[in-house]
Amino acid sequence: MSDYREQTGSCMFCGQSRIIEMTEDEWLERIQKTNKSGATIADYMASRECNCRNGQEWRDKQENIEQAHSNIDMIFGEKYPEVADILSKSVEMIAEGVIRKITIMTPEKYQALMEKKRGSISVRLKEINETELTT
Questions:
Q1: Residues 68, 121 contacting (CB under 8 angstroms)
Q2: Same domain flag for 45 and 71
Q3: Residue 83 sits in the same domain as residue 44
Q4: How far is residue 98's CA from residue 84's CA, in Å, rounded to a whole number?
Q5: Of 41, 71, 53, 70, nearest in space to 13 by CA
Q6: Over the stretch 47-100, which tens digit does the pLDDT of each residue have?
Q7: Are residues 41 and 72 in the same domain?
Q8: E strands of the chain, at which residues?
Q9: Sheet holding 120-127: strands in order across?
Q10: Distance CA 121, CA 65 (A)
Q11: Structural domain for 17, as ranges
C-alpha cells in the first residue's frame, strides 16, 4: 500500500487554494502520463474541484471533451481507427467553437459526425441509405 501525499494547488481562474491528496503511486502515474510537474497537476485538480463560475464552466467543457474522446473510441476505435484519430484530433476545436461540425464519409456508406449540440459534443455513426433512380 502506498502512502498518501498532499500538495497544494490553486484554481487557475480564481486562485483559491486547495489541498490535493492522492497516493504516491497516483501522483507518479499522473506525472508520467501527462509529463507535467506535481505542482501543475495539483493546480489542474484544484481547478477541477473549484466552485467558481469560470472553474465550473471549464470543468463542464473538460468533461464534454473527455466524454467525446470516450465515445469516439467506443464507436470508431476498433472498426475505423483512422476516423477515430481524425475525430480525436478535432474534439478540442469543436469544444472551443473553432469548428462547428465535422463529417467523414467511410467507404462502407457510413458517415461519421461530430458536432457541438446543446452544450455537449455529439458523436455519431450514421448509415447512408441512398436511392437513385435514373431514366
A1: yes
A2: no
A3: no
A4: 19
A5: 53
A6: 989 999 999 999 999 999 999 999 999 999 899 999 999 999 999 999 999 999
A7: no
A8: 4-10, 17-23, 101-105, 110-117, 120-127
A9: 101-105, 110-117, 120-127
A10: 7
A11: 4-51
Give residue 58's region: left, alpha or beta (phi > 0; psi -120 to 50).
Answer: alpha
Domain count, the chain: 2
Question: What is residue 16's three-state secondary structure?
Answer: coil
Give the angle 44-48-52 at the CA atoms, nearest 5°. 115
Distance CA 20, CA 49 (A): 10
Residue 72 and residue 114 in one domain: yes
C-alpha cell at 8: 497544494
What's the pTM value of the predicted model, to 2 decimals?
0.75
Q: Which amino acid is at 108?
A: E
Q: Which residues contact 129 (CB under 8 A, 6 or more apart)?
A: 109
Domain-located, residue 27: yes
Q: Are residues 23 and 75 in the same domain?
A: no
The answer to the question of residue 59 being in a domain is no
